[in-house]
Amino acid sequence: MMLHVNDIRCGDCVRAITDAVLRVDLGARINVCAAGRRVRIEGRVSVEQARRVIEQRGFAVARVIDARATDTAVRLRDDRSFAY
After folding, report:
1. Range 1-5 average pLDDT
2. pTM, entire model
3. Does residue 26 lie in a domain region?
4. What's the total number of domains in the chain?
């Protein structure tokens, strides 16, 4: 998902947003572009959860640019299906 978040100004803002999302989804990948005020999240967190935790940290989510959820969980194949 991609969110447009107002008031991202510095590294502390980036860390606050990253920490907030990681509290909801420890395995999430978060990319914050302070210049463009965009936050890209790949993981199991929903748009509603991401919006809530980011806004709890004092940032305003202006709009949702892309609401598609991308699950970063690794799925391992069962090796028993292969003939050796």
Report:
1. 96
2. 0.80
3. yes
4. 1
